[in-house]
Design brief:
Elements: H1 2-33, H2 43-55, H3 58-85, H4 87-108, H5 113-132, H6 143-155, H7 158-184, H8 194-214
Length: about 220
């Protein structure tokens, strides 16, 4: 029984690491093309929305509402699909949305800005909702994981500390890799869209991995 529990713990750590890595990668790409707009977590976006409302910046309000609502819609649709068909379905939704965005950027270039503004947050909302319904937990932002690290250090639960520390390091690793690729590829290059294609494939393969090998369960409803 302990052996099975350890194997499950390892499998969800692997899935969590890979998905947090992908989220860090995608978020860094979004920072680059949206001029300092994160899209994998919403706290900062809501705070900035308040600032834009206060200053009367209509264009800024519209852009931020697009991001927030797209994330929410992605989470809602993913939760519905994941509850019916399992974690893999929610991850497929997220990965496919990212791959489609990559293709749109390839063909439209700068003309894909509006689509990208909607599709990337949608995909991150979809991923975060799907994993949040399982023992993997949230995978697209670090506020919760860092809080949990502090809580579990206080409790002396070093297994839980390791669980969330792995998530933390994965997100950072994803941002580093994305920044590296962004410095190598020119934004006008046809290969630029591949920066998004890679994490899209990673998310889909992670969904396939957990479906065929680890079978991360959903809680009983």
């Amino acid at each position: 029984m302990k052996k099975n529990a350890d194997a499950f713990y390892i499998s969800i750590n692997i899935s969590g690491f890979i998905l947090a890595f992908a989220a860090g990668w995608v978020d860094t790409f979004a920072l680059h093309i949206f001029s300092d707009e994160n899209i994998s977590f919403m706290t900062g976006r809501v705070a900035k929305l308040g600032k834009k409302i206060f200053s009367g910046d209509a264009d800024g309000i519209k852009s931020l509402l697009f991001i927030i609502l797209s994330f929410m819609i992605g989470a809602c649709l993913s939760a519905f699909i994941t509850k019916r068909n399992g974690l893999c379905a929610g991850l497929y939704l997220s990965g496919i949305a990212i791959i489609i965005t990559s293709a749109v950027i390839l063909f439209l270039g700068s003309g894909a800005a509006v689509f990208t503004l909607v599709a990337i947050p949608f995909s991150m909302g979809a991923q975060n909702a799907a994993t949040s319904l399982t023992p993997i937990g949230r995978t697209t932002h670090l506020t919760g994981p860092i809080t949990d690290i502090g809580i579990n250090i206080a409790k002396g639960d070093w297994r839980a500390v390791l669980f969330w520390a792995i998530r933390f390091s994965a997100f950072i690793f994803g941002t580093i890799m994305s920044y590296y690729v962004l410095t190598v590829l020119d934004s006008k290059s046809a290969l630029f869209s591949l920066i998004l294609f890679v994490p899209g494939i990673i998310i889909i393969l992670t969904g396939l991995f957990q479906k065929e090998i680890t079978a991360v369960p959903l809680p009983e409803s």
